[in-house]
Design a protein that fits this description.
There is one protein chain. The protein is mostly beta strands. Helices cover about 0% and strands about 50% of the residues. It is globular and about 30 Å long.
Length: about 80
Amino acid sequence: MASMPSASAIQDWAAEDNMNLLVEIAEKGIYRLTFTEACYHLRWANNVGLSGSQNKVWAGFDYLTVDGQRCSIGSINRL
């Protein structure tokens, strides 16, 4: 199961489309989160929230919340 460092260390983020989010983690690099289903409000969101546990965000377990929509993370890849 893929993971990335804690969501509290997010420096920047950018939506590629409704299925993919790029997240920059301070001093750790850039990660692409791919969702299991389209996250429709992602491209216009001002704020997003990521769940996490044990100081990490896990694919297949954690999710992104944007404008009330919960988007399950299917995969995490470091770029």
